[in-house]
Design brief:
It comes from Bigelowiella natans. Belongs to the small GTPase superfamily. Rab family. This is Ras-related protein Rab. One of its GO terms (molecular function) is GTPase activity. The structure is a single chain. The chain is of the alpha/beta class. The protein has one domain: P-loop containing nucleotide triphosphate hydrolases (Rossmann fold), CATH 3.40.50. The chain has five helices and six strands; from the N terminus they run βαββαβαβαβα. The protein has a six-stranded mixed β-sheet with strand order 2-3-1-4-5-6, with helices on both faces. The radius of gyration is 16 Å and the shape is globular.
Length: about 210
């Protein structure tokens, strides 16, 4: 349909934080323990309905290995939003999430020149039931997210599905809201992964998925 939206959403973060698992949980409602490390880039499509509009979310799974990062930045082009993932049991992955966000801010811009909205997801929340494991304080992660310009921060579990759908749909709603506020009426955005017709058409705070 002409009124459908296609949104390109980057999913980035360090190796083994669960990027692929989050994508599979969201798109197929499935989980496996034996996902192989992503080599290069893979993507999946998820159609949803938001505000009576069909939105096709194209989730780009970007490999986290250092040797690929320089090459893979080419795939950032025309992204509408990003999900940055860290492992709640690994402080290093949270610190690197801030670096991923800064890199996206430098490499990707919206048609109006603004930075794309990014949400920070702390994956593997199901492990909080595991004794003897050290976890990142969610309030610390949220504060770091605010300082780094993320539009929201939430813990998720690809294994159980907790908050995965809520976070993704909340991000998409913010993108659409931003588009409504920034695009003039009867505008078609071309040469990007956003297609919008017939209507003027982004997670500004930590409660973005409410």
């Amino acid at each position: 349909m002409d009124d459908d939206l296609l949104l390109k959403v980057l999913v980035v973060g360090d190796v083994a934080v669960g990027k692929t698992s989050i994508i599979q949980r969201y798109t197929n409602d499935s989980f496996r323990k034996d996902y192989k490390t992503t080599i290069g880039v893979e993507f999946a499509l998820k159609p949803i309905e938001v505000d009576d509009k069909c939105v096709n979310i194209q989730l780009w799974d970007i490999a986290g290995q250092d040797r690929f990062i320089g090459l893979l930045r080419n795939f950032y082009r025309n992204a509408s939003a990003a999900i940055v993932v860290y492992d709640i049991t690994s402080p290093k992955t949270l610190q690197n999430a801030v670096k991923w966000k800064a890199d996206i801010d430098k490499k990707v811009r919206l048609p109006d020149g603004g930075i794309i909205p990014c949400i920070l997801l702390g994956n593997k929340s199901d492990l909080r039931e595991t004794e003897g494991t050290t976890f990142i304080d969610p309030e610390y992660a949220m504060e770091l997210a605010k300082k780094s310009g993320f539009i929201g921060c939430m813990e998720t579990s690809a294994k159980t599905g907790a908050n995965v759908g809520r976070a993704c749909k909340g991000l998409v709603k913010k993108v659409i809201t931003s588009m409504k506020n920034s695009q003039p009426a009867q505008t078609v955005v071309k040469d990007s992964n956003i297609t919008l017709k017939g209507r003027s058409q982004k997670k500004a705070d930590s409660s973005c998925c409410n």
